Amino acid sequence: MLQLEKTKEFWHRYRRSRSAVAGLILVLFYTSLAIFGPFLAPYGPYATGPKAFQLPNSEHLMGTDDLGRDLFSQVLYGARTSLLIGFLAAATSTLIGVLVGAVSGYVGGRVDDILMRITELFMMIPQFFLLMILMVLFGPSMLNLVLVIGGLSWPGTARLVRAEFLALKESPFVEAARSVGASRLHIIFSEILPNATPPIVVSGTLMVGSAIIMEAGLSFLGLGDPEVMSWGKILNGAQRFITRVWHVSLFPGLSIFLTCLGLNMMGDGLNDALNPRLKER
């Protein structure tokens, strides 16, 4: 019953923002496409046809590309790949960031200095260029995309989590846990981390959009997984015709834009709903 009341209170605060609700609808829409899209696609993503560069019509809702392939089907298949990489890379990034930030903020001292210098080093490196180099070295695959994007995107989360731990580690409930002999791991993961969750959730939501854009950028440059369809891969095939045929690049680009816009609006709504400083008194 208590959990139900908390859920109702959260939703009441969240839906006060129309942009947050609109963002949630967009995210749910494209997530549904990622889950069910391949079952709804009228054609296979690589099925060629006799008519290239057809404009959107009743048979091909988004038209066709240079090989006569149905763009609507490609966008539906691409949604699964792009969102799967986005969510998995964001989860990887968040996990690394939480571990580094939690240890750094709670332990402090020399450990904190070392971890923060490593974090700053990662933040100084031009991320996208390093992504390109690593994908060339390790090869383009979905697993490598997830690991490389997630492995380079954690510093922001680490600094955020560290700040939360520094603010919470001297709180009365933490002192009470120490006084009864609780271990460091128990205090970090059972006492402090649950109270630092709201900003982590918001950061993770925004990271999904960043990961989708990174994957699209790499695929646009030909560094994505060649065996699966993604929005970036569609744009890669459309770049030669981008000034002559408007629809080939419009629909995958619009899908990336709307998905990332929805994630950002949803993240703002989550921040307003979960941030205790913004709650109604």
Q: What would you note in describing this structure?
A:
Helix content is 73%, strand content 0%. The protein is built from 12 helices and no strands. The protein has helices spanning 2-14, 18-40, 71-107, 109-124, 127-138, 142-152, 155-168, 172-179, 184-192, 197-220, 231-238, 246-274. It is elongated and about 75 Å long.
Number of contiguous helices: 12
Proportion of strand residues: under 5%
Summing up helix and strand content along with how strands pair, one would put the structural category as mainly alpha
The count of β-strands is 0
Report, as a whole number of angstroms, the end-to-end distance: 22 Å
Largest sheet: none
Report mean pLDDT, rounded to a whole number: 87
Low-pLDDT stretches are none
Helix content: over 70%
SSE ordering: HHHHHHHHHHHH
Dominant shape: elongated
- Radius of gyration, in Å, reads 22 Å
What keyword list fits this structure?
mainly alpha; 12 helices; elongated
Outline:
The chain has 12 helices and no strands. It is mainly alpha-helical and 281 residues long. Helix 2 crosses helix 12, helix 3 (71-107) runs antiparallel to helix 4 and helix 10 runs antiparallel to helix 12 (246-274).
Secondary-structure map:
Layout: H1 2-14, H2 18-40, H3 71-107, H4 109-124, H5 127-138, H6 142-152, H7 155-168, H8 172-179, H9 184-192, H10 197-220, H11 231-238, H12 246-274
